[in-house]
Amino acid sequence: MTPERWRGCAFAALFTLLANAALAQELPAALDETPAPAVLPAAPAWPQLDAGGRAEVRERYAAWRALSEADRARLRQAQAQWAALPPDQQQALRTQFDAMDRLHRDSWQLGPRLGRYYPALQPLFGFVSPEQRTTALALLRGLEDAQLEQLAMIAQRTAPQDRAALRAELLGLPADARAQWLRTHAGR
Question: Taking the domains of the chain in order of start, what are their residue ranges?
């Protein structure tokens, strides 16, 4: 993917995440203590959404809240850049984003940094048990870019029947042993 196309997809993806965060402002107060960024009008009202739509908004808003403040700042900056584009360019980006595979669209819920790596990491982390989800996200967010690249390579090379065991092994490692584990497995 060219840098221009990646940037375009990123803007559209980030805009989508922000749009869902804006929609989530209408969530009942019991579900949220942190206000969403008020960036976009025209989001459908909460009562107008069906159960599936509400579940999707809750999921996306939870993803927004799970992002670091640095990632949120990057998303706000991207939204401002997107908003400054002419309407035809905004629509072109929206169309390009809508045409993406759902895996690529949804990966942006992980934030700009991790979302970039997720399509390559998906074979290893796409089907994580609810019990492993928090640990897996913390591990992935704690890795440096070079380590994420190593892990992406390992994920791509690991046979489907071996992925759960490999993931469990990685998640069971102490943080100070992960760098060596990644180097060893990437070198195989």
Answer: 1-110, 111-188
